[in-house]
Amino acid sequence: MIFEKYAEMIERIDQMIRLKNTGTPEELAKKLGISESTLYVCLDIMKGRGANIEYDKYAKTYFYLSEGEFDFHFIPKK
Q: Which of 1, 5, 33, 62 matches a 20 to 30 Å C-alpha distance to 16?
């Protein structure tokens, strides 16, 4: 169950980052209904999986340095 919780959070964070609509860390955590510390854990997981995430303090949003997205689905081999 814990994996599913983090996977869902990461997919939601990913979507908001791609839309450049995260807001501040405090605002993003509030939108997601999680603590800021849980948000930072999710961001660390994403960074550990290759996401180049930065925060723009003027635009008040997270963004990717290079395009991409997360996908946590099983893809069977043919």
A: 1
